[in-house]
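Ticket reopened. Same input as before:
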Amino acid sequence: MTIALKSVGSRQLKNSLARWLITLGGVSVLFTLVLIFLYLLYVIKPVFESAKIEPVHSFALNNQEKVLATGLDELQELAYTIDEQGRIQYFALKASNNVSVGEKAFDLELLDQPLKRVISGHGDKKLLVTQDNNIQLVAPRFQATYDTGTREIIPNITYPLGEEFIAVDEQGVALQHIAFAMNDERAVFVAFTQDGRLIKTNLLADDDFSYDPAYSIEYQEITLDSKRVDEVKVTPDAAMAFVRSADRVFVFDLSTDDNELKATIIPQLEQNRTKPQQLTAMALLSGSSSVLLGESDGTVSQWFEVATDNGREFKKIRSFDVSNTEAIKQIYTEQYRKSFYTLTAKGEMGAFYTTSENDLWRGSFTSKVPESFVISPRANGLLMLNDSQLSLYSVKNDHPEVTWSALWQQVWYEGYPEPDYIWQSTSGSDDFEAKFSLVPISFGTMKAALYAMLFAVPIALAAAIYTAYFMTPELRKKVKPTIEIMEALPTVILGFLAGLWLAPIVEHNLPAIAMLLIALPATVFFTAFAWHKLPKEIKAKVPDTWAPLILIPTLCLAAYCSFALSPWMEAAFFGGDVRQYITNDLGIDFDQRNALVVGIAMGFAVIPTIFSMAEDAIFSVPKHLTSGSLALGATPWQTLIKVVLLTASPGIFSAIMMGLGRAVGETMIVLMATGNTPVLDWSLFQGMRTLSANIAVEMPESEVGSSHYRILFLAAFVLFVFTFIFNTLAEFVRQRLREKYSSL
Amino acid sequence: MNKWFKSGSPWIWLSAGGVSLSLISVLGLLYLIASNGLSYFWPSTLYQFDMVNQKGENVTVIGEIYDRVTVPAEQLAHLDMDFKGEDSVERLLIKTGNRELVPLDFRWIMVPEIVKTTTPKDLVVIERRTNGNFYGFIESLYLDGKEVSHERMDEMLDRVTELQGQMEELQKVDIGAINYQIERLRLKERKYRLKDELTAEREQAIAQELKTLQQDYIVLEQKLMAMRDQVSRDHMNVRAMDGQVVKIGFEKILKIQTNNQFGFFEKLGTFFVQIANFIIDDPREANTEGGVFPAIFGTVLMVLLMTVIVSPLGVVAAIYLHEYAGKNAFTKLLRIAVINLAGVPSIVYGVFGLGFFVYMVGGSIDQLFYPETLPAPTFGTPGVMWSAITLAILTLPVVIVSTEEGLARIPSAMRHGSLALGATKAETLWRIILPIASPAIMTGIILAIARAAGEVAPLMLVGVVKMAPNLPLDGNFPFLHLDRKFMHLGFHIYDVGFQSPNVEAARPLVYATALLLVTIIVALNMTAVSIRNRLREKYRMLEH
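Engineering reply: fixed in the latest deploy. New output:
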């Protein structure tokens, strides 16, 4: 009645509204999947984008004096110049209330003496060299104040070594080249004088340079085998000095007073070159263990110390072809990352990253080497001075350390003897070289999945075959749900049991585990044979469709015997301790939480998945096929092998695929049952780290938007794609199978 | 023999072996969890071992037997232990408690060293708020400094328990509410300031309110201080296993048990009380002792929220697939999407949830609606709402598949009948199909709940924590705090079993938690399966 009273129109409207809403709901499922896919891609994408360098502003400097050095603050609000007269002038890089871009904002007197040169050191420190060969160390700093209600940047100058002038050379001779490094305890200056001496001057802090600039001075001379020096560099930790001279670089160990010559790098000898090359530029990479050498043929090579049979030696690690024709004029390195910029005489500029061998950017902004080139402290800007024109460039280069090849190929990391696959995402220090190789963790995923499948597939398929084909319907009704209950068990429980209960048991009873492999099948055969020989009367009472139940006690007994015999086996064959036998006699590392434990635990998690689907596939083989085969005289076993399994094989394949998909993505079991060490080793007795466990461990600690964060998303994406392939394949096969059966 | 082999019978038996192994592992697993989990609640016998150790000294060890292992004598040889003429030695792991007296509250003892084993009737186990259990003999009781008889122990303990309850109530509910209101006032002020609407009037009103709150706070705090004095009035002297007498204040005591005096029924009674306490108590000692109430609460709340989201979506999607979608490539694609949603590793959902919901959607919500709390995030951080949404996507295919199966079992004659009588498709769905399919939908929802209750990996990224200071539901407006983090049973197992400093001590608790979780999940699954089976039977009858 109520329906009839309503107008037809409103009913139709409701009907079509419902259709729309339901369609929308249905489509939203697909939308969700696509959204996940696209969102993962969206997060990953920036990692593979190349760098962008673009001009921001450029303005002319109107001062008369020659500018010796420039610099800028962290947020790129102020740039400064230091000129010959010892003045430091600040220019606005961002327009604010009272100044526009390029206008002079501050003007300070650094010192009242004319300057000869300014050398930039690590961090914000600048070394001023006066006309009369004295030096002074300054550090221009910037402070944000909120006094007037708005944010304002106020520059100030600090003097890490005091305001007194320091004579680097005892004899007061003019300095040709100078380099320095300082920490809280000492400051080290290495210089090459006009009269051909290489000197080292040590300033030892009386207390600590971070709050007290008082020091005592110590002069030393370094024996150098050459009259020519082109460039001097000192590592920021003041451990080594690099002296470039024509075609070679001398490396001195500064950590002792002997200033011993540690090595001589001669790139010429490294490879068979036809033309003799000169070294034209040199720079130290952040982290103070690598040196970059630019050569006259336009290549840049990276060198660091590697442990070899003859002790530690400098080796050429990799090289970059920067220019085909021109010599490298300058190399500039970033403070915290392994990026560097190159410049040729014609102003061709390039940006590179060493670890990933990433060719980030090439181009040119000037027609010659700029008078000054500064990388902003956050490495997101460049400040260049060329022909009295000060120009700011923005740099978008957030993920230089990631390239496709660095993720999947061997990379030679600093301090390692050879290229390797390493995953080590974080460390305590700032200038740490992140090692992002997805190979070890992808390998771990495959290893875990493989061992799990080795364990699960035989048991699950055997169980599926028996349940679907031989079991009576009454028993099947009980057995199938019981095994499927296992699928519902939370994996966190399986993982916990694997890690805390199974792992110690496996460790203490290794012989028993090995024996089970033989004992269990053997027991089945013996039981079967004994059953076969039993008198008919007993067999008639208990049908052999009860085989699984008959086997339960015998299998339990066999397992019990194996474990009881285990200590005896251990004493008889392995000298009382299998663990020691494995580590000492076989030389295999043994972890308590190893692939064996994971294989068993994850196998249990996968068995119900495979069992359930394979059982369905076998059970739905049309009955007339088997009846036909049996009627023609085949035994049940022959029928099973030749007819049933053959027909159901696509279904079994899709069951295995689904199981594999589950094993690949499983997180909690591997997280709890392995040591989570990213090693590349198939050993049964070692752990692994999988993609999923890696995400679970590192994701909560990774900084949002960092390369690490994005690479973890990439790991998730790889997992997504893996399982997508397995599942789609399985579903495809199953759909075709269904069509086939329905036609039979 | 050869004939027997040819018949294929051994191979059939071998495949039967697969079934047996699967059954053994399932039942064995359930038995393992159940026995270990339940033994945690059973009051165990307290032993006193009088021993003579290798150096010939007399030692007394008091405690519960935790584990026993047989070790070959050779392995002990390099520990400078010598047991003449024995191949293997039995070792006992004893929980000795008394954490303030000994460095480790567990100790291995060698059975051959034991001279005498007794179970003294007056041996007690004192469960304490901090420092774990204490095993010993009660020497004397002191009421406000004066010695009193042992009979008054229960009375004194009851008094302390009641006071502690009141203090907790005061601290959590009353003082908690004031703190919450003060924080809200601060945010209110900041909000006005951000919008430039902070007039002098408003400022004064806020200051006034703040003042009242602070006065209330002082009153409550004084009350609390007074109660603290009250609660620590009594103490007892207890003699530990090495003869040392330790003073234990009653305020630290939760329970005093004389297990050795218990008969079977008393033990059974204690057993059930312990189970109840485990379920309703808060965890203590970095989750390694006490109950799991916040974890149960968090799990249930999250799962309920998830159900609210996933049910309509899953049912609508299933109806679309079965009733509306045509037989075309798009439908095939949709089915593949459903299968894939079911197959995508759960951790991927966690990553997606963290990136998309927490940082992107949550971050935007914060900027739009909660600018006053920034930079501290409100929704832009993992929380119970994001967990529920993430798990809703994860369990969507479960509901879809189950509902669709139910729809497929409804005879088409019912639809045709309804349509023939003039009902529109929507009316047929709403009045005929859905009511009949409701048990199938129920099954799907139950299975989804079971799946969600056991899932841990994605939750680790989108909102679960080891220790949540506040429940997501409390007496402060707006009562349901969807932005809060929560505790979860599954994560509790992972955290206590693998991250706690004293894994050995925590292990029984982990088993107990695992048992609880398994019971919930197996029960849910069995319910779902039985509903489904009944449904199948019903429609089989309809078809004939």
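The mean pLDDT of chain B is 86. Chain B has three domains: 47-139, 146-233, 293-543. Please confirm and we'll close it.
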